[in-house]
Fold these 2 entries.
Entry 1:
Amino acid sequence: MLTAKEIMSTNVVSVTPDTSLKELAAKFVASNVSNMPVLDNAGKLVGVISETDLIEQQKPLHIPTVMALFDGVFYLDSEKQFRKEVDRVTAQTVGELCQRNPVTCSPDATVGEIAGLMSQHKAHLIPVIEKGKLLGVVARLDLIKAFEV
């Protein structure tokens, strides 16, 4: 069975946590990829960012419903979720918007294992990591191409 090291893309387009969202948008357009790993200055994987993250950053903020009772105000929606939404709409950099601690695989992961990870975690990109170093990425299209073999 094919493994990650046999199907992964090694010419990886990545960004850093300090990359502005405007720069990110330009990079998405120029590279024609829809997901990118986020690497720190040492080249360590810190997250993954997608076109969907950038699009969702633009959707309107949902103001939670509150109820006043005995001089107190109670959120009927999750206050934690509201804080998360505020962080999303106010994000200015990739580091503020990216998905931290992404699902990864080893170079020896099989196509079936990678498909399982993508399905279970709703991931479109799986970084391939060995000894803490990014070797490449497996995108959904890489998996589909593997089915042709």
Entry 2:
Amino acid sequence: MRRLREHGLPLVFGALLLLALLGQAISGLAGVNGDAHDHGLQTIGMGEYLASSDFAVDLAENWQSEYLQFLLFITLTVWFVQKGSPESKPLDKIGRESDEEQKVGQFAQPDSPAWAKLDGWRRGLYSHSLGLVMGAIFVGSWSAQFIAGHAAYNAEQIRNLKAPLTFGTYLAAPDFWSRTFQNWQSEFLAVASMVVLAIYLRERGSPESKPVGAAHEATGIEG
């Protein structure tokens, strides 16, 4: 029970992810088969749907936008602040901060990660590892959205007796960019809302909120 409690947050979100994927699969299959029935086409099973470009593109376009949100939030908060928000660094901490503040090199502590104690490229790489990994996942999932979206779009083109598009043509097609921008705008809105609303509103006990009694002007303080 102690180990479950210590790792409860990712376990809960993992369970919610599986439930959401299940819901997406069931509702998505129903939608695809309903459309196929309306057009007098053969319906498909769950396994075929999960392996289809329709399912893949819907999954990938959501994932890429989420990881773009994290990537931008991680990197932009190095240099940009918001007075009064717990999502912001303190106003006097703008920038990369000193080695002493970051506890690297000669200022590393006994329990600091091994690469934080080193000099050179390994410390540099580790210093940006979170942003690099988030960026790699974003690029990978956006590429998956492009490939799966291209396949799904061409399948629809063929059903409508139209010529399929090449990769280059699809890259400039409204379908690809519409899928992309409709996800990006929602992520930017969500982050901006969280940054601003957390200045004035509270959630007692949450690390994403300031302490209930903290002043609205208090910046970079988490409860």
